[in-house]
Specification:
This protein is of the alpha/beta class. About 55% of the residues lie in helices and about 10% in strands.
Length: about 220
């Protein structure tokens, strides 16, 4: 595991915590984004299978690093761990390809459990707090171009539909969404259909356009 954090005290503490686990190893620590990218290239694929990274890094921020890793080495998962409570940061991290988003305020044992959950299940479930942040993000920022205003749409969506919508906006396919949320692809398709109905969107492309992401 690679730990990337500009805060040397936190970086050392989380690296020590991880290294104390019998099933986890920290192969490198770094405080800046450019160095993090260089290490991912030199350590992959044999020595590195996960990056634990803050957003606030020197030289290149964590969002940019995650985006680059997602584009060049999509098999390498990035988990964001940050003190930021910004909804923009959450949304940008998911769009950049991060597989999880943890707050530094959570208990140390919860960080370890989250990492084990990812290793075992291949996904990190979205917490209630994170899901609520996603609702607020779309409520305040979704372009008002469709027949259903953002606030009204968010009130109609379930928490699970909100998770699906967030991953849709990040460009994930139904299969990728299913893997991320640990549900069946058929279930994802049902959620997508319900979202489109509630948004009165013509199709997925129309929905993505409203989210500010042109469909490919």
């Amino acid at each position: 595991m690679l730990v990337a954090d500009a805060d040397a005290s936190f970086r050392r503490a989380i690296a020590d915590l991880i290294s104390a686990q019998p099933d986890m190893t920290v192969v490198a620590e770094v405080g800046d984004g450019e160095r993090a990218l260089a290490l991912t290239r030199s350590l992959r694929p044999d020595q590195l299978d996960l990056v634990l990274m803050d957003i606030m890094l020197s030289r290149r921020n964590g969002i940019s690093v995650a985006q680059h890793i997602s584009a060049t080495d999509p098999a390498l998962p990035v988990v964001i761990v940050t003190a930021s409570t910004s909804d923009d940061d959450l949304f940008d991290a998911v769009r950049a390809g991060a597989v999880g988003y943890l707050f530094k305020s959570i208990r140390p044992d919860a960080v370890i459990q989250a990492l084990r959950d990812y290793a075992r299940q291949g996904a990190l479930p979205m917490s209630r707090v994170t899901a609520a942040s996603v609702f607020e993000y779309f409520r305040t920022r979704q372009p008002q171009t469709g027949p259903v205003p953002a606030a009204e749409l968010m009130a109609r969506l379930s928490a699970r539909e909100c998770e699906v919508l967030l991953l849709m906006s990040a460009g994930a396919t139904d299969r990728e969404i299913a893997g991320q949320l640990r549900i069946r692809e058929h279930t994802v398709k049902q959620h997508v259909r319900h979202i489109l109905q509630k948004a009165q969107a013509r199709d997925r492309a129309d929905m993505l356009t409203r989210l500010g992401r042109p469909s490919s």
